[in-house]
User: Fold this.
Amino acid sequence: MFNPSFKGGVHPPENKKLTEERSIENLSVPHTCFVPVQQHIGKPAIPVVQVGDYVQVGQLIAKADGFISSNIHASIPGKIASITNGPTPASPSGLRIQIETHGNFTSEKTPDKIEWDKLPPKDLLDKVFDAGIAGMGGASFPTHVKLSPPSNVKIDVLIINAAECEPYLTVDDALIKRSYKEIIEGIMITRTILGVKNVIIGVESNKKRSYKTIKEYLKKIGEKNIKISMLKTKYPQGAEKQLIFSLTHRTVPSGGLPMEVGTVVQNIGTCFAIQQAVCYGTPLFERLVTVSGSLINKPGNYKIRIGTTIADIIRECGGLKEQPHKIVMGGPMCGQAVESTDIPIVKGTSGLLFLSKEESSAGRYANCIRCGRCVQACPINLLPFEIAANIEISRPECTERFSPLDCIQCGACSFICPSRRPVSHFVKVAQDYIRSKR
Amino acid sequence: MDQQIYTLSLAPHTKNRQNLPVVMWLVVLSLLPSTVFAVYTFGMHVLLVILTAIFSACAAEYLFRLLLKRELTIFNGSAAITGLLLAMNLPPMVPLWIPAVGSVFAIIIAKELFGGLGHNIFNPALVGRAFLMASWPALMTTKWITFPNGTLFSSSFNAYSVLPKPALDALTGATPLAALKNVPSLAKSFDVHSQYNIYQTLFDTSNFKALAIGNIGGCIGETSALLLLTGALLLLFTRIINWRIPFSYIATFALLIFTYYKLTGFFMPYHALVYHLFSGGLILGAFFMATDMVTSPVTGKGMLIFGAGCGLLTFAIRIWGGYPEGVSYSILLMNAAVPLIDKYCVPKIFGKRKQA
Assistant:
């Protein structure tokens, strides 16, 4: 009843029933993959293959350009068919490496597990970097950057984000149920890299089975420094700053990073990827995606190769019941609507939703009635309606005193607005205006 | 290749089901029990008054927006609420042109001229009532319904034959609040024994029962405390209204009124307190009119201040003012203070450092 939480937030309909009980299925390998070189925050990777080259699964095809960047690996074996611009989640015309299936799959054999606890943290970090791991919760920040805080910063808690507060999405839940052992091992590796003792895993109260699974396993192996906490089911519980507050009561300063309060937050899927990378040398070339929404015939939690286009996924998931109004990558609260099915999934794609007009359309919006629900819902305590009102009458310069830059774009204000106003959209406009002035 | 272009928009891609029309019609629904009860107690004329008020409000909004070529917003239910709330603030037997004029004034002057729903500063229904009150005070304060026993109280007042005739007339000819207001000055001219009887009569259990159920004289919508509270519960439960305004309104008012009666050595302060809470428009005002989203503050702290201000003003008007009832004027006055309250109640931004 009194699970830890934060102030504000909303309760969107969960819609997790569609895929909650589905175990993970492998989606068949597509014939063609389009692997974008920009799948993370930072500089795009630089292609290291030529058109016509033959590649193996997991082979490096684009290398990180500098520290804040990420390696990219081939997700299917075959021939590089083209390296051209095309639609990607990050841009309507981003560089993509096209791989056509060719040759054999025999090399896909799991190598022996290495004993990571004998390696120094530096080597472990290098393995994370080599594997091209980027945050798998959606923001896709390169993981090795997060795991190398400046030496003058003292980190004392590692927070594992398994809140999964977005409606529809069930990948974290499904992954915990199947691979909790690997996840805990991944957490231990992450802890070693950071040199931190204490770990807290945050799970929302609507995933009791996952919570119990981890809790019992931790008890069984006698691990006392990893704790798991059941959080109140409320959006955006999984937002970094809100999660840190819920679990530790520490407040990340405005414009600051979690490490300023001695914390690092990792998504639970990322921990799994770290374990795979460190123990088996497997780079990140596939990920779990919740394919859901009312219009897909076979919703589920699928393991999908990065670079698989939405069109291929639709075909593999039994097709669509009717033309969707919106296709959303990620969750419905802060995911991204995409314009075509030629877009490939990337490292940060946690969900793929096919939504009908009734599910996703806000319709026309009306006047603000000053009901104050956006104020109550805002987890950052902003006055979203004031920002929106000023943008609506083209006075972006008047929004600065309402601090739109503190907005985390969680979308709670737009969700709750009875006048159906795109409040968070207006706030984004204000943010862009202020950033452009600086 | 798929040539279909799908809809693009920024997140979120899902919306709360409770949109504007749902909110507005739920408010209407929550007012329905007391409305039906008013028609049942006061008769069919009341139904005509209510329908006239709603119809004129809707028609005024429709025609005004049509004339100005604005988007027609008639179906979002806000005009209907204004009409209904205005009607609930009228005496039952007013001639039908009163609600019509009041509604038109409320919609056009108090709402549309400010820019329509969301831009008005004052609660339109209350502006309408204030306008009627100022223009036709006699009609607005005398058209009460008398019960078969010839008084504004359904209870058996006349059974108290011990009461001197002039005292009885003074008590029963007025609304409950007016009766309460008149009591101290009335009692002065009698001996101690009669004074006691007068208070006993006014604070008789049957009168409290009548106040709770609504079998008592007063405006159309303000009589049945229990049914109003039922509607208010619905609104609280669906989170359409926030508990802060009604809570701080009623708590402040109760505290002040009790302190006042205690300090002035009133005969029966506890009875007077309960009598005050359940009579007049306090419940209607605190739950349905002070909570009007457009004209109340947006922050939690602001709502508490707003409610406290309403409570203070209602107390002042009921005790010292020229009117027996002060709910509507106190809400209107506090409406004017909302921009100021909002300005000083900006919440502290999460993680914001103190200004150096």
